[in-house]
Amino acid sequence: MNPTPLPPPAHLDLTPPERLNIGLSCAIVFAGLGLQWGASHVGHAGLAFGFAIAFSFLFLPLYSLLHEAEHNLFHRHPKINNTFGFLLAAFFPGSFTFLRSCHLGHHRRNRTDAEMFDLYYPTDNLGMKRLYFYSLYLGLFWLAVPVATIALLIYPKLLQNQLLQDAPSASAMINGLPAHYLLKIRLECLAVIAIQVSLFFWLDLQLQWYLLLYACYGLNWSSQQYINHAHSPRHVLNGAHNLKAHGLYQGLLLNFNWHLAHHQYPNVPWIYLPQFDDTDRDRPGYLTAFIRFWAGPQPCQEPEPKAIALPKIGKEITS
């Protein structure tokens, strides 16, 4: 029998922290714009690099809040949830519908061969596997989103490119996109590009510093994205860790380090995830997991789990 996500206990009040989510989102976006403006106008390279590092950590909770919206956990009102999801995605930057579809697909395919980033079979080309691994988590993971934003708008048939189709993880995400969402995704891509370009000129930003801030964020975000899954069981629901992190860093991540709890209970808002610890599992340290991760792909010792079907999440994402 295929596993299914666990329903949270009915007696618990798991209402999303809606006002907190909105307040944090606005504060992060405005602070991010302030750092972008400062980096372009401070007139000192050292300070600009400092702003870039700050920006790279500031936008980690931006993604956590975007992730909540992808699961309809940002706000109970669908229009508010999706509006903030779109705005947060615009500063990632990418299409909210595209990112949500890819992420929900991740919940179905977790630890299958399509997402076996930290493992390899004896028949795999280990050199290519390592090249893909280190490229992905040294920034390519994030870079793929803005590149896809431009590609989906200008030439959506690029997604049918054989190179992408031959990559298991890329083809799984691309082929998992419902065809009838393409127009909506392209309109969102247009809006995201318009927002970014408008802010660039309105704030009188300098291109080199604008790119540096996002490059630092892309590196920071990419480097931490799979440590919650690496070296976990090959199981769609249980293939993740609840990592131990310093309280301040856990707060910055908005409990994103409680990732096993999230996969087991995907309908639980971020603020309640520590209540759903799996006591049968060890909790590795965040820094320990991060360091171990960079050893690269390891030999695969477990069979592939079967992908699962998830319950519908909201009215829009049904596949």
Supply database-style keywords.
two-stranded parallel sheet, single chain, 319 residues, 12 helices, 2 strands, mainly alpha
Care to describe what's here?
By secondary structure, this protein is an all-alpha fold. It has twelve helices and two strands. It has helices spanning 18-41, 45-70, 78-90, 96-109, 126-154, 162-166, 168-175, 182-202, 207-224, 247-253, 259-264, 286-293, and strands spanning 119-120, 298-299. Strands 1-2 form a two-stranded parallel ribbon. Helix 3 packs across helix 8 and helix 5 packs across helix 9. It is globular and about 55 Å long. The model is unreliable at 313-319 (pLDDT under 50).
Topology overview:
Elements lengths: L17 H24 L3 H26 L7 H13 L5 H14 L9 E2 L5 H29 L7 H5 L1 H8 L6 H21 L4 H18 L22 H7 L5 H6 L21 H8 L4 E2 L20
Parallel strand pairs: 1-2
Q: Give the strand tally.
A: 2
Question: What's the average pLDDT?
Answer: 90
The first-to-last residue Cα distance is 20 Å
- Strand pairing plus helix content: what structural class? mainly alpha
Order of helices and strands: HHHHEHHHHHHHHE
Uncertain segments: 313-319
> How is the biggest beta sheet arranged?
2 strands, parallel
Number of helices: 12
Q: Helical amount among residues, as a percent range? A: 55-70%
Residue share in β-strands:
under 5%
* Biggest sheet, spatial arrangement of strands: 1-2
